[in-house]
Design goal:
Elements: H1 13-21, E1 29-31, E2 46-50, E3 55-59, H2 83-106
Parallel strand pairs: 1-2
Antiparallel strand pairs: 2-3
Length: 107
Amino acid sequence: MTRSVKKGPYVYDKLLKKIAAQSPDGGAIKTWARNSQIHPDFVGYTFGVHNGKDFIDVLVSEEMVGHRLGEFSPTKRFGRHGGKMQKELDQKKRQTEIDAAKSAKAA
């Protein structure tokens, strides 16, 4: 379920205070508030959103308003499917890229 309209969007209070005290060019604002919604005042700022291990830099744009900060800082890493066959395909792809670079350099 979504949050009630009468309550309004959830925005962490400390983030609003940090925004008021800092300019958009002032560097990343570190936060652990992954559940905080992106407010229109956040556009142009860079947030360092914690993913459980590191802070992932998220530059807020107009399209992100209304989403949560945690949506742009993934907590899990995709390890790829495929195994041996995928490795062979990747090697062929790399080799074709190397050959194309060599031929472009020679020309």
